[in-house]
Structures are given as structure tokens and as C-alpha cells.
Design brief:
mainly alpha; three-stranded antiparallel beta sheet
């Protein structure tokens, strides 16, 4: 009986937590006057960590469909934060510009501080358990 209650609540808890983090981060970006969204920051952050990412690989890593990723990349390119460089006939490599690096460096400490806020009073063991459970849910759905 209790397991059924938890089973029904876990999906709602995941969605509600994700939504709360998203709203918190949007408010934080607005407060600091950042010119991009948290979602766009994720793209910059991914590119910074690996300078040889294709648009398709970014879709995989960030769980985005191609049209959504195309829009994200177009906006970041228009803002001068990234450039697309042809790698072959079918793929472009996405590179971060100096302006993008500078903005990323400005946002990163704010995001790290934000994470501390929403992860406070959560032990490492609890975080490990949460990641383990969420990873298993993902694995179950991929089969």
C-alpha cells in the first residue's frame, strides 16, 4: 500500500522539483540581468567543457529535439556567444566565442551559489540515493 503511494507521488515530485528549480533560476537570471536563459547557459556550459561538440551530440547530451536545439543555437549565435563551424557535409561543430566564455564565467558562480541553496540540508548519501533512483528510472524506460 505504502509503495503504491510513493509510486504515484514520485513523478509529481520530479516534475514539481524541476519546475521549482526552473522558476528559481529564471528569477535569478532576471535579477542579475543575464542576457540568456538558463537553458541557453546549459548549451554554453556543455560547449565550454567539450570544444568539439556537434549539434546532434548536444541534442543527445541535453535531451533536446533537433528543432529546439536549432532554435537555441540560432539565438546564441545571433548574440555572438557561439559560432558554427562546418565539420563535414552533415555536421557543424559548435564553438563558444570569447564573448560566450566571458558571459559563462559571469553566470557560473551565480549558478553554483544557487545549487548550494536548493541542495542545502540534503546529505551526500541522500543525493547519491536520489541520483541512483533517477538513473534506474531512466534505464527502465530506455529498455
Amino acid at each position: 500500500m505504502l509503495k503504491d503511494v510513493f509510486t504515484n507521488l514520485i513523478g509529481n515530485a520530479i516534475v514539481a522539483s524541476g519546475r521549482a528549480i526552473k522558476v528559481h533560476n529564471l528569477e535569478l537570471y532576471s535579477k542579475h540581468g543575464f542576457e540568456i536563459t538558463p537553458e541557453q547557459y546549459l548549451v554554453l556550459n556543455m560547449i565550454k567543457d567539450d570544444e568539439n561538440l556537434s549539434q546532434n551530440k548536444l541534442c543527445e547530451l541535453l535531451y533536446k529535439d533537433k528543432s529546439n536545439m536549432t532554435r537555441l543555437i540560432s539565438v546564441l549565435e545571433e548574440k555572438g556567444l557561439i559560432v558554427k563551424e562546418p565539420a563535414d557535409k552533415q555536421a557543424n561543430i559548435i564553438r563558444i566565442t570569447d564573448k560566450g566564455r566571458k558571459l559563462r564565467a559571469e553566470i557560473t558562480p551565480v549558478m553554483l551559489e544557487s545549487r548550494k541553496l536548493y541542495l542545502r540540508e540534503i546529505s551526500q548519501d541522500d543525493m547519491y540515493t536520489c541520483i541512483k533512483v533517477l538513473s534506474q528510472i531512466q534505464k527502465n524506460l530506455e529498455q
